[in-house]
Amino acid sequence: MFAFVKYIRTFAAVMKKEKFYVVWAGVTPGIYTSWTECQLQTKGYEGAKFKSFDTREEAEHAFAASPYDYIKRNTSAGSTPSKPSQNADAPYPAAVLENSLAVDAACSGNPGAMEYRGVHVASRQQVFHYGPVYGTNNIGEFLAIVHGLALLKQKGFDMPIYSDSVNAIGWVKQKKCKTKLPRDSRTEQLFLLIERAEKWLRENTYSTPILKWETRQWGEIPADFGRK
């Protein structure tokens, strides 16, 4: 089995984690327990104000208080913005398949200290993380997709994977990480990971759709590290 699985948190537990959504301004203000309910109350509602909380106690306390104790005064999560909203608690566009896994990588310098992670889109909870290790962003994007494929196959979950990297998606389909990064003592650890990823792709079949995250229309991918 693909070596990355040792870094996996229990995926089922992450997906089942309950969150509470406070709607201060919407069709019917209140506390809701799913994104679908939150969207019904806020999507298209001008001046909508809402935020998610980890416990009902926190949500009840927040609902009894001013929304501006929790969100910025210029935040209008439910209004139609001129460009995609970066509000971490805003509902996703209707085109997004929420029962999915989003992956992304970040690199301090390119090459530099690289890390990647996977996030369950609906719950916005991190499912796995790897790094930092010396590498490039494209390599991280490639490894993140393969990590997600191996994880979903191991756990028996049927959901797509989103990536915002055209290069990485292409490399996965070709079963080859076509990096030009030199292999030396500093990158040896990374190349061993790449070889295991390529081996997994050659030896395994999967039905998981790998979808392009449309950043211009939808905003940053949920797995984004927020360092831009």
What value does the average pLDDT take?
84
Q: How would you sum up the global shape?
A: elongated
Strand order of the largest sheet: 6-5-4-7-8
Element order: H for helix, E for strand: HEEHEHEEEHEHHEH
Strand percent estimate: 15-25%
Can you summarize the main beta sheet? 5 strands, mixed
Secondary structure tally: strands: 8
- The CATH architecture term of the largest domain is 2-Layer Sandwich
CATH topology type of the largest domain: Nucleotidyltransferase, domain 5
Helix content estimate? 25-40%
Sequence stretches where pLDDT stays below 50 over 5 or more residues: 1-10, 74-86
Assign the CATH superfamily of the largest domain: Ribonuclease H-like superfamily/Ribonuclease H
Per DSSP, the total helix count is 7
Structural class: alpha/beta
Organism: Bacteroides stercoris
Protein name: Ribonuclease H
Subcellular location: Cytoplasm
Cofactor: Mn(2+); Mg(2+)
How is this fold's topology laid out?
Blueprint (H helix, E strand, L loop, with lengths): L10 H6 L3 E6 L4 E3 L2 H8 L6 E5 L2 H8 L37 E8 L3 E9 L4 E11 L1 H19 L5 E3 L2 H9 L13 H16 L6 E3 L2 H4 L10
Parallel strand pairs: 4-7, 7-8
Antiparallel strand pairs: 1-2, 1-3, 4-5, 5-6
Helix pairs in contact: 4-5, 4-6
GO biological process, one term: DNA replication, removal of RNA primer
Enzyme class: hydrolase
Catalytic activity: Endonucleolytic cleavage to 5'-phosphomonoester
